[in-house]
Design a protein that fits this description.
Layout lengths: L6 H4 L8 E3 L4 H13 L9 E5 L5 E6 H8 L30 H6 L9 E2 L10 H10 L4 E6 L3 E7 H14 L1
Parallel strand pairs: 1-2
Antiparallel strand pairs: 2-3, 3-4, 5-6
Helix pairs in contact: 2-3, 5-6
């Protein structure tokens, strides 16, 4: 199957998602999520905040899960389904009646750079959609940065558009 479209045909602009500098705190990221997604009832999938440096280079992404893990780092280990020792899903007494406690209020001041997922994989605007699908599957990504000349961040491609394009032939035959 040869792709008719390339990444730039599917990509979204960099300002379609909220963005913050890496030194913002988790508390400020929560404020951004609430203002950008929740209070406006705008839910573009995936719900992601982009994290930039001073020169607007993309450093990473921050999801709602990353924020919650940052507020309760011992609750569930990142990247695994392992639970807190001696705890199962029916016994959440370690948290008490509230997710937010004194420790999580303190952790809310942590810079997002410490909890974000670093941007390590990318595609170019003229790369094939098949390449984007491969990179996304290989790195388990639902949002992939698009860099021009492997330097300048010019957009994002989402798994939903990649899926739509690469499976189009299945439904058209």
């Amino acid at each position: 199957m040869s792709d008719q479209k390339v990444v730039k045909d599917l990509m979204m602009g960099i300002f379609e998602y909220p963005h913050i500098p890496y030194w913002f705190s988790i508390r400020e990221a929560v404020g951004m999520v609430r203002a950008s997604f929740l209070e406006r009832n705008k839910y573009p999938e995936p719900l992601v905040i982009l994290v930039f440096d001073e020169t607007y280079s993309l450093l990473g992404t921050l999801t709602l899960k990353d924020i919650l893990r940052g507020l309760q780092p011992g609750f569930l280990k990142r990247g695994t389904k392992a639970q807190v020792p001696d705890q199962d899903e029916s016994d959440l007494t370690l948290l008490g009646d509230t997710f937010v406690n004194k420790e999580s209020l303190h952790l809310a001041e942590t810079p997002v750079q410490e909890i974000m997922v670093p941007a390590k994989a990318f595609v170019g605007p003229d790369d094939s959609v098949t390449r984007a699908a491969y990179v996304m599957l290989r790195h388990d990504l639902i949002l992939l940065p698009v860099l021009e000349e492997k330097k300048k961040f010019v957009g994002l491609v989402r798994m939903v558009e990649v899926f739509d394009e690469v499976t189009r032939q299945i439904v058209e035959e």
